[in-house]
């Protein structure tokens, strides 16, 4: 079996002087969707930020496609094919929807751009009519879709998704779930941090539960509900 | 008031506004993306002017002249890029205050570099070819060059607007201004962006300077003067807003023009020369804007959080060792007058140190436990000095009452200015304190009948028993010890707890029933009174004072002393003031380039010993426990 796309072993992370992650280990294989579950403040978002290099971190091994990324800065990690959809969406509110997308567009590692606007709009039809809309004037659900679209135009191989269902309407969650399933079907690997277990079950193969910054449980997604505390 | 006089002043004002706008726009763009307030931005302007004067003189013909101007601005842009790579990259993660001081240190070094390269004389550049004449406007002759400059401002504003809206670079800058982390997460090279942005900002400042070639001579005071003006403009317009900067530059220029055009007016039977207001007019406008709309005309409210990352370890009451050390220091201090027989200079130096310690301790109370960085603490030092001096010489009061008058004057000033200042945070607060200090300085400088203007006041001598060197020294020691003791009591009283709570988490403190603004106001006033006491001692120690006593340099000295000692320790200001005074009285006296030396010292502090002397010592004793 080939090396996993993302390989994390013994990951510690800090916010200033406070340690938030303690020796986390997990893997994401190519084409696999993996869920990070756990309570608020357990360290799910921190794990994703640590992979992106957005918090101070240290790991025995932090590798993407077999190559060590523990010493790389955030933009280098992004360029290696990691797309990041942050917790609170972090849309550039001053820029239009199209400018948000344009800023993020770059070819994948193979030099191909797989995400022309038409394909994005096919995935998220709601966005098609909002090209000139300022990011700050979009609704939460629209912003959430834009955040995913913005990550996709970087042509990633691994998508880090932080709470895509948080604070958006149920109908949007449904659309988002469908879109993510479609993405997974194209072979994109996904690491999803999510409170919404139903969404995880729709999408993910395996799950890791984080308790107070440490790995609490891991196993097949189908068994995750039984472990809930 | 004649309308043509006003129109004339307005064109003149718009011409100055253009230069100021270039600097302010650069400052604003840099702050937007990097969150650094570049105190060296005035120095970039000054260097642009010096370089342009030199180049325009050497290169032949009109092409040489205009090409020289552009080359000068480009060279400054390049310097900016170098500064970003070599210095700023090392300080993005340090607390805001250290960034301010580090870039100020850079300004000091650049100033001495200009002194070394071009000498202390003013340099006047050649007139602009093609624009040497003047145009007639309502019966007045206006220099063509001023008219050209008045149009250059809006032209650059438009160019910047297009750059920001139409180019990928501009969009990246706008995105990074909002969320630079997210920009990096999209694969954009943050480091490269920061370098480019800093180079652009420096280029704009250099251009602003270069374009003044035909208007004003290059001189070494320009950097601070322009920096102050540019700050005012940026704060009025709103940090990060380019149109705001232009509007504010025009507003300030127009208010000044109006003051000059109005000339002497009578208010309630008193003749008042409005043109004297020009020095303070911009600061008055800024104070007004900050109070009514703290984020500036076009600015957005600042995110309140940001502080939490820099929270300090809690203060601990002094242990046995600390007490012993303090008593030993006191014993040494008491023995100093006896030293005079072997080393005559000892009491003089020691008195300077005591004054510095009191002054630094007063600022430390504000900055450490209070969390309010003042860039204008010299105002209260100066109010104390002038209050004491006027009471002693003008009113003929004895020494002690005169001293009390000085403290009260400083306290009254702090009470008044503090009310405005404590409502703001961070950079805005620092800028407002600077603005108030400039107002006090201008008043002292211009109110010749009372303050003696630039000549200052002389013959301020204490009477018995303070008229001997030892007498005054011991009195100063008593004041210093009492001041330090009071500060300690304050810090460890519930008042001090509330003050620190407000510093670390303002909203949480308010939610638990603490009136943060009031607590901070009281601390501001107490700090001002103590600074006033230092000023009063200074007046008696020197016998004469001048506006220099409360100039911006003294505020910076105090900042350096506090940082040198270490912000997080109550013993910091004592150590910092002592070391700084020693350094100033020995090394810096020996060289023409003391600014560069001071700058290098500050940079070394920020980059190598951010904890200051006290931080370094406690780390030494803790045996590396403070790691992490």
TrEMBL record, chain A:
* Pfam families listed in its UniProt record: ABC_tran
Which terms in the Gene Ontology molecular function aspect does this entry carry?
A: ATP binding; ATP hydrolysis activity; branched-chain amino acid transmembrane transporter activity
Which SMART domains does the entry link to? AAA
- Give the UniProt family note: Belongs to the ABC transporter superfamily.
Q: Which UniProt keywords apply?
A: Amino-acid transport, ATP-binding, Nucleotide-binding, Transport
User: Which segments constitute the ABC transporter domain?
Assistant: 6-226
Entry-linked CDD domains:
ABC_TM1139_LivF_branched
Q: Does the keyword Transferase apply?
A: no
GO terms in the biological process aspect are: L-amino acid transport
Do the record's keywords include Protease?
no
Name used for this protein in its record? ABC transporter ATP-binding protein
Q: Which domain of life is it from?
A: Bacteria
- Gene3D superfamilies per UniProt: P-loop containing nucleotide triphosphate hydrolases
Automatic annotation (TrEMBL), chain B:
Q: Per UniProt, which keywords does this protein have?
A: Amino-acid transport, Cell membrane, Membrane, Transmembrane, Transmembrane helix, Transport
Q: Which GO terms describe its molecular function?
A: branched-chain amino acid transmembrane transporter activity
Instruction: List where in the cell it is found.
Output: Cell membrane
Q: Which GO terms describe its biological process?
A: amino acid transport
Q: Name one GO cellular component term.
A: plasma membrane
Q: Report TM segments.
A: 6-31, 43-59, 65-88, 100-119, 147-164, 185-208, 271-292, 324-343, 349-366, 403-422, 427-447, 470-487, 521-541, 561-583, 595-617
User: What membrane topology was assigned to this protein in its record?
Assistant: Multi-pass membrane protein
Q: Would you identify the family this protein belongs to, as annotated?
A: Belongs to the binding-protein-dependent transport system permease family. LivHM subfamily.
What PANTHER family does the record point to?
Answer: ABC TRANSPORTER ATP-BINDING PROTEIN (PTHR11795:SF442), BRANCHED-CHAIN AMINO ACID TRANSPORT SYSTEM PERMEASE PROTEIN LIVH (PTHR11795)
Q: What protein name applies here?
A: ABC transporter permease
* Organism, scientific name: Ancylobacter defluvii
Specify the taxonomic lineage.
Bacteria, Pseudomonadati, Pseudomonadota, Alphaproteobacteria, Hyphomicrobiales
